[in-house]
Design a protein that fits this description.
The chain is mainly alpha-helical. The protein is built from four helices and four strands; from the N terminus they run ααββββαα.
């Protein structure tokens, strides 16, 4: 069982997939930072100083004790965070699209398939020709 597992892990596809997952995670972190730290502040400024991460609809307010400590967290629909996540997704999708487009432009076009050779006469045609020759 150990040798089968080792053979499975050391296959090229598994290692390539592992590298791709790690790189994608790092790329996602970069895009999240790009969105939160570079894209969203100017958009928020244009919209009157709105911080998208603070946008939420409170369904139930937080409960506090006499000391001012939160006893029960507020229940909120955080649509600002959802908007940021959508923007992150669009940036990642666009980057992947551009990467694939660049990759396809480096690939040689597939060679055109050669036309199929003429199949020649069918079996019925050959038999009919033999029959006609025999009649003569």
């Amino acid at each position: 069982m150990w040798s089968e597992f080792k053979a499975f892990i050391l296959r090229g596809n598994v290692l390539e997939l592992a590298v791709a997952v790690i790189v994608a995670g790092a790329f996602g972190t970069i895009v999240t930072s790009f969105t939160n730290d570079i894209i969203m502040p100017p958009i928020g400024m244009l919209l009157g100083g709105v911080d998208f991460s603070d946008l939420a609809m409170t369904l139930q307010a937080a409960e506090m004790n006499d000391a001012g400590e939160v006893v029960k967290e507020a229940v909120q629909i955080r649509y600002g965070a959802f908007i940021q996540t959508i923007i992150n997704f669009l940036i990642i999708a666009f980057a992947i699209f551009m990467l694939l487009k660049a990759y396809k432009s480096t690939q040689e076009p597939a060679p055109e398939a050669a036309p199929a050779p003429d199949p020649g006469p069918s079996t019925e045609d050959l038999l009919a020709e033999i029959r006609d020759l025999l009649k003569k």
